[in-house]
Amino acid sequence: MMDLFNILVTESFWAASLRIASPLIFGVLGALICERAGVLNLGIEGIFVVGAMCGWMAVWLGAGLWGGVLVAALAGGLFGLLHAFLTVPLGLSQHVSGLGITLFATSVSYFTYRTALPNVSSPPRIEPFQPMDVPILSDLPFLGPVLFQQTALTWLALLMVALVWYVMDRTALGVALKAVGDNPDSVDAQGLSVYALRIWAIVAGSAMMALGGAFLTMSAFDAFFFGMVNGRGWVCIALVIFASWRPGKALLGALLFGAFDALQVRLQTEMGALVPGQVFLMAPYILSIVALVIAARSADYPRALLTPWFKGQR
Amino acid sequence: MIRIEPRENPSRAFALGIPVLSALIALALAAIPLLAAGANPIAAYGQMLKGVFGSVFAISEMLTRATPLIFTGLAAALAFRAKLWNIGAEGQLYLGAMAAVAVGSGLLDISGVLLVPLVIVMGAAAGAAGMVAPTYLKVRFGADEVVTTLLLNFIILIFLQMMLEGPLQDPMSLGWPQSAPILDQGVLPPLMDRMRVHSGLIIGLVLAAAAQFMLVRSVWGFKLRAVGENAPAARHAGINVNRSLFGVAAISGALAGLAGVSEVAGLKGYLTTDLSPGFGYTGIVVAMLAGLSPAGVVIAALFIASVFVGADSMSRAMGVSSFLADLVVSMSLLCVLIGGFLAKFRIERTGRRGAKA
């Protein structure tokens, strides 16, 4: 028990939690935006792959780190547009379309990577985002290493939480967005376009998801690997339910998941001799299911989630 | 302006033609990545055809590849008919394979007449358990089965690594994470001499026929379809919706488990963590191409298997990445989705231009 306490008070543990949470923050926010507009986006896992691959490749080709971030977001938005086309005007099954996007986005990314780099044994590396060293602040005890020695992309993730919260809760756009996921008829009655709101929400949400992928290749690691997303997208779909579609709770959920993941890595090194390491590796996924089971009963799903809407049909 | 109108009588020709057309369009679209990779598409398609139908060996390889896809395709088709989103066939496949090697690789040294059925039943039961559990979480707690089955895939894969480095590890494997081989008498026999195609294919075909009959002709199938089309109405009509869901969950999981049994006891002999290159996920595409019809699953599985085997052979000959196959498979899913829309609705021009005409 003492060991656990010792882990929980270290700066490096909390710094790692925030670092692991960062891609999930982007992912949960992206899923949240789509679902608030009434559309489930199971393309998330594949859009993570696209963001990771495109962001990395843009930097590798010389676009610069922020250029890579932009390319990743645009690529994610493009796949979001495809999902939007299939699910909004055509009103096709959001489940199947999303899974199709995941398969398509993943295979496009893998094929492109393999075609551009046919014969590499070890993946080429880029110079990723470095931890920022904010003057004075990063020297603060505890808070300094945890908050102010993260990379710029972690800060972008935290900024996005604030931005999404502000738009959702404080602007007319946010009101319209939430209404289109709850009661599209009322939005239509006010003369707003249900189609346009939903399509743009999916594009924006997908661009956000792709940033989560970009974090993996441009901040967490410095190269692209097959299978590197490893279910992070699906975890976000569980976390958004846990967060009851609120940006603040989404941040909390991602941080809890990050803390748990950071903890299992440390416990694995401490107790590896007693318990097989896989028990710890499994734990974050099991935690996600447990969180879902706890949250599901009281989950207040956007009322029009999964329901297609056609103009002129009530 | 454009208006979307439902077609009055969606024709049967559409229902059959759309999947075929979608598959062909997806194959044609593959010319774009082929050109991007610097290959001549005509030569590449020729190479693919030769790789699938060029010899008895090639056809045997294609049928071998189709076998697990028939099982996972059926698993998805039946569950999706009831609107039970089983995306966990990949994990259930590994549960089935683990159960198969657990009983089949030396625990019981009994006659093949007993061992083969035992391996099959244990594998099916393990797969079924892998889908009944998330269905329970759905029915009891309202936990979305899409998310739980997806996450279970990852949990089961890690569990598999643990088993292959622990209780299921072959003591003779020199530390490699692999299981002991299935005993000789427990192996599903091959169908042709010196070929890899094995009797798992026959099991798959029989189960597809049985599923088709059950779905279309039996009361069980009628209830299943009623639950899928409108659960509240089905409940109102006195159908026990939960019982239907658990029933189809068990069958769907069992079918996915059998894919694992068939791969391990029919093809590979022993279990490793790369037994399946995503057969569970590809099964979803197979089911959608089949229009969720069990008979159609067989045809769709043969098509998807041809794409994989053909692309592999083309890839070896021409140096184009074999991820091309995954690309074609995912594009055929998107094409069949759009095609299904066009079969149900027609798009009409209305508004200003229409009014003047």
From TrEMBL, chain A:
Q: Which UniProt keywords apply?
A: Cell membrane, Membrane, Transmembrane, Transmembrane helix
Membrane topology category: Multi-pass membrane protein
The subcellular location is:
Cell membrane
| Predominant location | membrane
Going by the entry's taxonomy, the superkingdom of the source organism is recorded as Bacteria
For this record, the Gene Ontology CC terms, alphabetical, are: plasma membrane
Pfam families according to UniProt: BPD_transp_2
Q: Which residues cross the membrane?
A: 12-32, 39-59, 65-88, 95-113, 147-168, 199-218, 279-296
* Gene Ontology molecular function terms on file: transmembrane transporter activity
Q: Does the keyword Translocase apply?
A: no
Q: What is this protein called?
A: ABC transporter permease
From TrEMBL, chain B:
Primary location class: membrane
Task: Name the InterPro entries for this protein.
Answer: ABC_transp_permease (IPR001851)
Record keyword Membrane present: yes
Q: Where, subcellularly, is it found?
A: Cell membrane
Name the GO cellular-component terms: plasma membrane
Which UniProt keywords are listed? Cell membrane, Membrane, Transmembrane, Transmembrane helix
What is a single Pfam family found in this protein's UniProt entry? BPD_transp_2
GO MF term set: transmembrane transporter activity
This chain belongs to the protein called ABC transporter permease
